[in-house]
Design a protein that fits this description.
By secondary structure, the protein is of the alpha+beta class. The chain has eight helices and six strands. Strands 1-2-3-4-5-6 form a six-stranded mixed beta sheet. It is globular and about 40 Å long.
């Protein structure tokens, strides 16, 4: 079983390639959760957007099965075991601020306290491996400046893990699949060290 590194979990949002910005986003409104996606093409971002909306509801409903449905296949079994343990670092990171690092909020708490929970899908383009990547941002648009978030790596580093959560996906065989652990847990490439 892999052991989660608590110091890495302190900066769960430090894992996107910086500098890719979409100029316009299409708006989808559904109750208090707002979802936005940029222009489509192969691997339409609207599909990634739907995944983001589903995942945000899964966090708020503490629906572990839905989260695992979108987990990386190679992490699925381990993450299932970790999410059954309410004291595991992954469970605490996702759902329980009381057992998470001091002064850090769980993904659940960030979402639950949002007045205008927004999901934005961003196309990160092709990686060096020729695979297209996309990033889901989850944030409260009542307190986060979306334009600044999408255009400023420093702003993402400042707000990441506190008021903004991400999850990185890749487009493979005609569908979006996770390229990182749930909600980018254990990752640390958003910000310069």
């Amino acid at each position: 079983m892999r052991k989660l590194n608590r110091t890495v979990l302190q900066k769960p949002l430090n894992n996107i390639a910086c500098g890719v910005v979409l100029a316009l986003f299409c708006q989808l409104v559904s109750g208090p959760l707002r979802a936005e996606a940029g222009p489509g093409g192969e691997g339409n971002l609207e599909e990634l957007q739907k995944i983001g909306k589903t995942l945000s509801r899964a966090i708020l409903d503490i629906d572990i099965d839905t989260i695992l449905d979108h987990d990386r296949p190679d992490l699925f079994r381990e993450d299932r075991m970790l999410l059954k343990d309410k004291a595991s670092p992954l469970y605490c990171y996702l759902f329980d601020s009381d057992c998470y690092e001091p002064h850090h909020r769980s993904v659940y708490e960030i979402f639950r306290n949002a007045r205008n929970l927004t999901v934005v899908a961003e196309d990160l383009g092709e990686g060096r491996n020729g695979i297209r990547y996309g990033l889901l941002y989850f944030f409260d648009e009542a307190i986060i400046d979306k334009r600044k978030l999408l255009s400023s790596p420093d702003y993402l580093c400042e707000k990441g893990g506190k008021e903004v959560v991400t999850w990185t996906f890749k487009y493979v065989n005609g569908k979006w699949v996770s390229s990182h652990p749930p909600f980018d847990a254990e990752t640390d490439v958003h910000c310069n060290p």
